[in-house]
Amino acid sequence: NNEFMDNSDFKDTKKMLEAAAISHRQLQTSKPITLRINQMDLIKIKAKAKRNNIPYQTLLGAVVHDFAEDRRELKIK
């Protein structure tokens, strides 16, 4: 009816939406980690990254992301 309705919960709703926005923003940031990896595996990963003209950390991050999103399977031999 082109009428504005009073929202008595406006402040609570605003706080909830602000908290959700902050949480979403935090989830989109990257977090540094320490990882132990076999020396030969690291050499191979760096070589593959170099062939693709990307930093090896970016390559590792992409692999981890694909695994987390179920786009890559874990195969343990």
Order of helices and strands: HHH
Task: Report the biggest beta sheet as strand number plus sense, adding barrel if it closes.
Answer: none
**pLDDT below 50 for ≥5 consecutive residues: which ranges?**
none
N-to-C span: 66 Å
Q: Could you give the count of β-strands?
A: 0
What percentage of the residues does DSSP assign to strands (E)? under 5%
User: Which radius of gyration do the C-alpha atoms yield?
Assistant: 22 Å
Which terms would index this structure?
single chain; 77 residues; mainly alpha; 3 helices
Molecular structure report:
The chain is mainly α and 77 residues long. Helix content is 57%, strand content 0%. The protein has three helices and no strands. The chain has helices at 10-27, 39-51, 56-68. Helix 2 packs across helix 3. The chain starts with 9 loop residues before the first helix and ends in a 9-residue tail after the last helix. The mean pLDDT is 88.
In a nutshell, what does this entry contain?
Helix content is 57%, strand content 0%. It is mainly α and 77 residues long.
Describe the secondary-structure layout.
Layout: H1 10-27, H2 39-51, H3 56-68
Helix pairs in contact: 2-3
